[in-house]
Task: structure prediction
Amino acid sequence: MEFKEIQFKDSNTQRVYNNYIKNIKNVTKPLSKIDSQEILMEFNSHIYESMQSKKSKSELDTLLNAIDKLGSPEEILKPLIADKMMDKATKSFNPLHILQALTLNITNGISYIIFAVLYLFLGSFIFLIFAKIFKGNQIGMFFKDGSFKLLGLTSNTNGYEEVLGNWFITVMLLTTAVLYFIITLLLKLKRTINKK
Result:
């Protein structure tokens, strides 16, 4: 089914309607075309039904009443868009989708804040990989007196033994990939539990 704009007799009513529809389109841009069209048609259907009831004498008053009942697309659609983006992110495992979804969901509970912190933590592993390339001996997994002391950057390597050497980059890449996969699976599990 394809979206069809409602045509009004009054030019001011048409302008108000067009602006409202434009707002919905802008708010739903992050969604797939199918989801965006579905939302647009749902809102349009409510407006059309309100216009048929004609509780007010003027077209503009009837439209404004319908829009007031529906509410601002930015406020009404934010939770729906956040939810759909999170579904998309957990299915695709795409880091950009996950970042977008977490940004939209950050106000929806402490668990999303925790997931955001976990992904930021993974970002620090990526930073260490690049730092190892440029700083060399000052980055790594350091032991002192036979026990683990530090993973990361140190300015004083006296008495410390860096045990991974050039394998540090490989180990950190593998660790990052595995942790990314596990965190994303946990996020997907959380979404599944929330939907029940």
Remarks:
- Helices lie at 11-27, 33-53, 59-70, 73-76, 78-92, 95-105, 110-135, 167-195.
- DSSP finds eight helices and three strands in the chain.
